[in-house]
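Dear all,

This email documents one entry for the complex benchmark we are building for the journal club exercise. For each entry we list the sequence lines for every component of the assembly. Then comes the predicted three-dimensional structure of the complex as a token string, followed by one or two observations. Please use this as the template for your own entries, and keep the labels exactly as they appear.
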Amino acid sequence: MNSHRKLALLAAVGVPLLFVAVITLQTRIDVSTAAEVQSQQELLLSSGTVIKRLSLGYDALLADIYWTRAVQYYGSNAGIPGVKFPLLWPLLDITTTLDPKLTPAYRFGAVFLSEQSPVGAGEPELALKLTQKGIAANPQDWQMNATEGFLYYWYLREYQKSSEAYLAGSKNPLAPGWLAMMAAQVVLKANETNTSEMIWTEIYNSTPNPSIRKSALLHLEGLHASQDIEALNQLAQKYHSIYGHYPASVDVLVQAGLARTTPVDPSGLPYIYDADGRAQLNPKSEIVIESGPATPPKVYNN
Amino acid sequence: MSSIPAVVAVNTFREAVRDRVLYNLIFFALLMMGAAILVGQISVGIERIVIVNLGLSSISIFGIIMAIFIGVGLVYKEIEKRTLYSLLAKPIKRWEFIVGKFGGLLLTLAVNTTFMLLGLFVALLYVSRHLERGDWGIVEAAYFILLQLALITALALFFSCFSSPMLSTLFTLGIYVAGLFSKDIREIGALTKSPVVEWACKAIYYALPNFHNFNVIALAGHGQPIPASLLWQNTLYAALYVLILLLASAAVFSGRNLK
Amino acid sequence: MSAPAIEIQSLTKDYAVGFWREKTRRSLDSLSLEVHEGEAFGFLGPNGAGKTTTLKLLMGVIFPTSGTARIRGRSIEDVAMHRDIGYLPEQPYFYDYLTARELLDYFARFFGYSAADRGERVEKFLDLVGLSAAGNVQLRKFSKGMMQRIGIAQAILHDPKVVFLDEPMSGLDPVGRREVRDIILELKRQGRTVFFSTHILTDAEMLCDRVAVLVGGKLQGVGAPNEIVSLEVYGMEILFELKPGAAVPASLGDKVRHTGSRYQVEVPEAGLYAALEQLKGADAKILGVVPLRPSLEDYFFKLVGKEKYSPHSIEVNPQ
């Protein structure tokens, strides 16, 4: 009776106090092992086949878990200047080894393994490897072939191979007609902005993934802007031929009747002209022009 | 007029229910609810796949735990608690007791699995508002899990006839894991240059219950059909192996002097 | 006459003991006996004598090392024979998650009764052992005495011809013991064979047609209680009271025992009247004169080599 009461009181007071101590201690342990954890993480990510073996038949669920980790890893690191996403490839590789049919992982990898830092890992070769793995595991999925075609076209600039990929995809009876058309287009009209726009539009439409969609939109905006700049350059030449000097700003074009409204980029900011009549993005604009596949991509500081 | 094994089976089921074994369904329900609610935030684009994978994997894990932990006590408990004395004095053959205990646990597992399957479909409907034709594969996958559970039950029951729960658990778990890896063992054997090792690995492969035969969770998750041939082949395989184990159990138990 | 109810021939049971199971311990040594139909047969012996072993062998819970046994002409290996026998184990354990009713109903199912029949039987036998009120109580809440009673109920609910009871009185208070005694007598009256082991020798003497005594795994004797021990009177016991202050007559010797003012002395039969004269001279009040015959208990304890003790300490230590 009395000793029970005493113990109950002691527990009621002592247990919370001890827990506070435990939590404090844990945070200190976390701090001192933080560096350890980082390197351990890289060690733990051994080959996907080993993990698959160890998964005791629950590989599909593990794949979903690794996929979630990959997406979170990407999200928490994206945009940090200079980041290289070293774990992205292993995570995606393991995911797709555990569940070769998890198609969103391939699509995600295709984009974000290839994109330059800080948007992606800048390793299009790895992206290609992943995609080819996906094609082998999902021969009925024409989207895989389309992804391969996209990779060859946009990041690797190998138009013949791109064409072959689209062609392979078009042989699938379920594939939409534009694959066959794209097979021709990437070779014949490789440098045209139109081709790139089509491809990025298809990417945008093919996935609900918000990161990929955001990236696609950015690319499309960049392409749109680059088309605008092309047109503006031509207008500048026209202006020059009329007035003998280049326009100071795009508003001048409106006044001269060469444009109906002030030319603005997709983010709403007006373009500017430099001294030699070449159009450029407004310095405040965040749009990125990658100049299309014909020229090497700029390294951008988003 | 019910058969003696059926009488024992129903009572074994009743014991499991009174032991509150079915309360694990509550945990499962909570798990599925949590998953259904959170999956949209965590895994965009693969909500259905995650629900199916999580649900089937849980059915499998919960079921295996139940099969092993109840299974290893099926015979052992009755010997220890001496409840067998009065039972064996009735007109019941020893093998009828064994079959009845097996049937009772299998019934418990079947009921458990069915309720969990319902819970899974509720979560699936919540997440995607509709069912697809490919979802029939989920039912088939659950059926295969049940076949696995029957095999594990028979294994645990066999060990229960002569060894303590602790050892029986280790043996059963060990054989289960080995049965998942048996394909790899055989492949490793094929890779070595030694014909003796290769033959030994092959023998292990055929002797062990090959649990990897039954793993179709990934297929179900992607809504892909499970080949019909696999259905009857796996059923037959499980039935045959269970028969082997029950026969062995009955043989061991029939000769056993109780305490 | 037809086959004996129980026929045991050279039944032997060895156990392998020792760390490496290298030694054997013989817990039952070549037991042979017959029990006739309708008999109430007592199976007596101290702890470890082999009584429970014998019963377990007959029930098929354990298997003999050698020897055979038949019940109503059928081998103990024939499980169908269990239709006609009932068994109450020593310290019965039943499924404690079941209620009394559920237990009886469960066991009744092994005998193929219709549902209505079964229901009737369950109620009838619950009532017989006085557990009708506790019918829906889970067995885990039962006292030892209640367990014993449900044990008897499950042993007889299928009207077996031969009933085996291992220590049926254990755990019961005197009222319970009397009830069990009455049940045994009733079973006997119905013509059933009752085979029970007990330590309560007075009950054995009272209830049994015949008894067998087992010591150290060996049968020591079988027969009617009064056959095992001779009927010969070997002395007389005089109970008397002395007036306060009075002395015990010296001629009675030093074999006089007393508690308070009550005295007890044993004298040879021939010397009875002389002793009574002595006591008359001492003005003693005679309380009783009892002829002494060896009892089953004496025989028993002579066998077992123990000193005589009070017949009321019965409880057996579990093995």
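Observations: The two ends of chain C are 39 Å apart (CA to CA). DSSP finds nine helices and 14 strands in chain C.
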